[in-house]
Specification:
- It is built from 10 helices and 10 strands.
- Helix 1 packs antiparallel against helix 8 and helix 3 crosses helix 5.
- Strand 7 and strand 8 form a beta hairpin.
- It is an alpha/beta fold and 313 residues long.
- Strands 2, 3, 4, 6, 7, 8, 9 and 10 form an 8-stranded mixed sheet that branches.
């Protein structure tokens, strides 16, 4: 069931008296600024501006579905794995004993969900794939570079960007799954997805671009937080297929530039928004997208002007 949770302004960490919110508009008090996260601006705004408005600005919340819960559980289990692995102990094991040890280090159901003795959404299958991949990576890498230097790393940044010649102070927030240090001291950021990378043996250009845009947000965020960081690579795991799909590539300037343009466009829309619940400044997808995108993929259609069957109270 979709619920309405009106957004509100929250204190910005390490900035006394400063607040940020997703429903920002220019008439708010000066100590309230716009908030952006990877999910809000890359996933929601990048997918559909009107859905972003309904979800983030108005506050209509989708119910947690099985895919969301499975993803959360697998993420939590992997986070515990990296917290528990003893590198000295692991270095003395052969492959089979290493797999057994690594598998034991992953978070258990009762540690993630109080009172749960078993996973119920095939989380074990995803965890088994991750365990095999991490054993292979451990055997092929220098042990000192195996563990992440950032594990579910939360980053908060207040930064001013210029949009059409006018500065905009924004609170950027992100949770980065993993940050690894390469042998040369540079950094590699890595994301976990529990969905499928391939569909019918292929992956769309749109999906590649979307994934790269998410990674670009994190690279930009870390570099603005600490300009001395040298982030050279990004990558991702998808555990939903028959086999784990792991991809690593050098950071791409093209997607970083597109990501910045998307952030700027989000600022433009909020500058036009009056705070009155009228989301007409946030674009609808083209008419042709209704059958192929809106109908199968949007869970908030009933509140969309194109469908006009629901009301927001």
């Amino acid at each position: 069931m979709i619920t309405h949770k009106p957004p509100k302004a929250y204190p910005v960490p390490n900035h006394e008296g400063l607040f940020s919110c997703y429903d920002y508009h220019p008439d708010m008090d000066e100590n309230i600024i716009q908030r952006m996260s990877k999910s809000s601006v890359m996933s929601d705004f990048g997918f559909c501006q009107q859905q972003y408005f309904i979800k983030r600005v108005v506050g209509m919340k989708e119910p947690q579905n099985d895919n969301m819960l499975r993803g959360t559980n697998v993420h939590d289990s992997l986070e515990m794995f990296y917290q528990r692995v003893d590198m000295d102990k692991a270095s003395k094991m052969d492959t089979q004993h290493l797999y057994d040890y690594f598998r034991e280090c992953f978070g258990k159901p009762h540690e993630i969900r109080s009172g749960e003795e078993h996973f119920h959404l095939d989380e074990d299958i995803h965890i088994d794939k991750l365990c095999v991949a991490e054993v292979q990576r451990f055997m092929a890498s220098d042990p000192k570079n195996f563990l992440p230097t950032g594990n579910e790393l939360e980053v908060d940044l207040v930064h001013t960007i210029e949009v059409d010649g006018v500065p905009a102070k924004i609170h950027f927030n992100g949770f980065i799954d993993r940050v690894f240090t390469n042998p040369d001291g540079s950094l590699h950021i890595h994301e976990l997805k529990t969905g499928k990378w391939f569909k019918n043996g292929k992956v769309s250009a749109k999906k590649k671009e979307s994934m790269r845009m998410e990674m670009a947000f994190y690279v930009w965020l870390l570099n603005k937080t600490d300009p001395s960081l040298r982030i050279t690579h990004w990558g991702w795991d998808h555990t939903g297929g028959d086999e784990l799909f792991r991809h690593v590539e050098p950071c791409r300037v093209e997607e970083i530039q597109k990501m910045i343009a998307q952030m700027q466009n989000c600022v433009r829309k909020h500058r036009k928004y009056k705070g009155d619940g009228d989301g007409s400044v946030f674009d609808l997808l083209p008419q042709g997208a209704q059958m192929w995108v809106c109908d199968p993929w949007c869970s908030l259609k009933e509140f969309c002007p194109r469908y006009q069957t629901g009301e927001i109270e």
